[in-house]
Amino acid sequence: MKINPFDKHRVNADQSRSIKAMKEKLFYLFAIGVSIFLLFFFIADVWIGYEAKRLCQEAQWEYRKTDCVEALITTLDDENQGYRTRNHAIWALGEFGDSRALPVLQKYYTGNIPDREPLDETISQYELKKAVDLANGGLNITAWAWRWGIK
After folding, report:
1. DSSP for 85-103?
2. What are phi and psi of 100, to 5 degrees?
3. 136: nearest Cα among 114, 89, 103, 90
4. pLDDT band per the 50, 70, 90 thresholds, residue 23
5. C-alpha closest to that of 118 among 80, 78, 82
6. Which of the chain's ends, N or C, has fewer CB atoms near its CB within 10 Å?
7. Contact present, 71 and 56 (Cβ < 8 Å)
8. How far, CA to CA in Å, does 137 sit from each of 21, 113, 132, 140?
9. Who wins on pLDDT, 17 or 72?
């Protein structure tokens, strides 16, 4: 049987349209995926900033200090505070990434990070390591949106 040359072009055109439609669908799926990722990143960024600012404000109020880093350092040094509160102060100091906190963070950091640390029973060496790294100028990809304007 002989194939009509016009049928051959019609088949190639149908395949081309099908491939083009598939590429468009993949592009839209990719765009939706990236949009969802950016949305969750933004939500997490705002949440982290809110928590860091909240911890700062609580420390400022409790110790009557106007500087956030100084208030959090005072919280960390206050042995009357529970370990959970002090560990939260370590986390917030790391999020702020201020080099003024470095000497205090290094004072508590032993370098011995256990596999598991109970948050309420000890100063977290894992959190201290992260905070020291960030206070030394480490990259904090979430801080760009909320770190400005902190006193």
Report:
1. HHHHHHHHHHHHT-GGGHH
2. -65, -25
3. 103
4. very high
5. 82
6. N
7. yes
8. 47, 21, 9, 9
9. 72
Rounded to 10 degrees, what is the CA torsion of 22, 25, 29, 34? Answer: 100
Distance CA 55, CA 57 (A): 6
CB 68 within 8 A of CB 96: yes
Single out the residue of 81, 77, 82 nearest to residue 93, CA to CA. Answer: 77
pLDDT tens, residue by residue, 81-97: 999 999 999 999 999 99
User: Cβ neighbours of residue 69 under 8 Å, at least 6 residues apart?
Assistant: 93, 96, 98, 100, 101
CA distance 4 to 8: 7
How far is the C-alpha of 105 from the C-alpha of 108, rounded, in Å?
6
Predicted pLDDT at 104 = 97
